[in-house]
Write a structure and sequence with these properties.
Elements lengths: L3 E9 L3 E8 L4 H8 L14 E4 L4 E3 L11 E6 L3 H6 L7 E10 L2 E10 L4 H11 L9 E7 L2 E2 L3 H5 L11 E9 L3
Parallel strand pairs: 1-5, 6-10
Antiparallel strand pairs: 1-2, 3-4, 3-5, 6-7, 8-9, 8-10
């Protein structure tokens, strides 16, 4: 009996998404053949395409089977390598952010615009400036929460918003924590 799984396939750079059910023994080249006639993809040589397995965190070879992996996401990049290398780096865009600031019993709202290369530390500094707090971090700390999840470790706070996949019209909760006494 042939086993099938559901796969999410993302065609890049067009960002076209599909959810498909495929036989686990299907080869990457067969998947490429199925998608080569999409608009904006026609005429691009499938031999230059790449297939990245998000779950396995590796590029799959063209003759490799897609495998038996639950909730697998396959990213198919249709741009030939030479075109990717000649393109300019990622475009820096604006992100509109609503910041809900909690300072004890006081709630404040701040609408701000950040660039995708700004970090969550930049958001924390903006909150401190808006609330007229010292930025030296000796008297206060700003705890950041996005969708209820804390973003307070140095790694997450130092990454650009684009790396954290933060999108436009985002709401960030910022809680002021007073240090010392």
């Amino acid at each position: 009996m042939i086993q099938q799984n559901r796969y999410e396939i993302i065609i890049k750079p067009q960002e076209i998404r599909f959810e498909v059910e495929l036989d686990v023994t299907v080869k990457v080249k067969d998947v490429f053949e199925e998608f080569k006639n999409l608009p904006n993809v026609q005429g691009v040589d499938v031999n230059n395409w790449t297939c990245f397995s998000v779950q396995r965190k590796k590029y799959l070879q063209i003759d490799e089977e897609i495998g038996n992996f639950q909730r697998e996401i396959l990213e198919i990049n249709t741009q030939p390598q030479q075109l990717q290398q000649s393109q300019s780096p990622q475009v820096i865009e604006n992100i509109n952010v609503k910041i809900v600031i909690k300072d004890g019993a006081i709630d404040r709202m701040l609408d701000a615009v950040f660039k995708t290369n700004n970090t969550l530390d930049d958001v924390a500094n903006t909150v401190q400036q808006y609330c007229a707090l010292e930025i030296d971090n000796k008297t206060t700390a700003i705890d950041i929460f996005i969708f209820g999840q804390p973003y307070n470790d140095k790694v997450k706070r130092g990454k650009p918003m684009s790396d954290l996949q933060l999108k436009d019209n985002l709401t960030i909760d910022a809680k002021i924590r007073w240090i010392g006494g």
